[in-house]
Amino acid sequence: MLLLKSAISDVDEQLLDGLLQGQPAIAAGIPMERAADTVALVTKLLKEYSPREQARQAADTAMRAKLLSRREAGTAATRAREAQELLAGILEFDAADARKKDLMGNLNEVMRADAVRFYHLSLVKAQQELDAAVDCFGAEERVLTAKLARGALGNKAGVPPPPSVEREREAAVLRAIEALPGPGAALTRGDLQNALDNKWRETNGAQQVKAG
């Protein structure tokens, strides 16, 4: 679960890359390609990790070793299930998001701020749920698991910043997301009809030239 949390954090960092640094690359907004990358990575994580199943197996093992009560085991499984559902919610959001395209059916070049916010908060909350699931286990088990996770992560494993620093960073991220420019003005039905009329005239004109 700790490895999954680290992987989710990586997905979030990739989505928001450059946001707080004010990089010119995202001056016009978060590229739509990052939404597709996020969906692909979350899909991969859900296939490679099954938070609910992993928590259940860990809880069952801890109960048999009398290190965890049935209630604590149930709580761990519930929190891990919530993490899994938050990740799945990103896929559902993407599949149902008709507003990522204009009326001509073309993908917008940049993500809407509300979509970036939804993806980011879903990823953050999934990490929090995994932390809560891990917290159901004993202190000794948590220390050992964290040590093993750091060994698996290598140089990527860093010391978590203090909660106050995390809160300040999160507030800055949300402010930056709200300030993001969105897609260009959406096509109106009139624009769509004009485009269709122009296409018809072009096609009809080409047919007349060919017939002549």
Blueprint (SSEs and pairs):
Blueprint: H1 2-15, H2 32-48, H3 51-64, H4 70-96, H5 113-135, H6 139-153, H7 163-178, H8 189-211
Structural commentary:
With 212 residues, the protein is mainly alpha-helical. It folds into 2 domains: 180 residues, no CATH class; 25 residues. The protein starts with a helix and ends with a helix.
Note the overall shape. elongated
- Describe the main β-sheet briefly: none
Q: N-to-C SSE series?
A: HHHHHHHH
pLDDT averaged residue by residue: 81
Please work out how many helical segments DSSP would assign: 8
Low-pLDDT parts are none
Number of domains: 2
Overall strand count: 0
Rg from Cα: 23 Å
Helix residue percentage: over 70%
Query: What's the N-to-C terminus distance?
Result: 71 Å
- Class from helix and strand fractions: mainly alpha
Beta fraction:
under 5%
Tell me briefly what this model is.
With 212 residues, the chain is mainly α. It has eight helices and no strands.
Features:
2 domains, single chain, mainly alpha, 212 residues
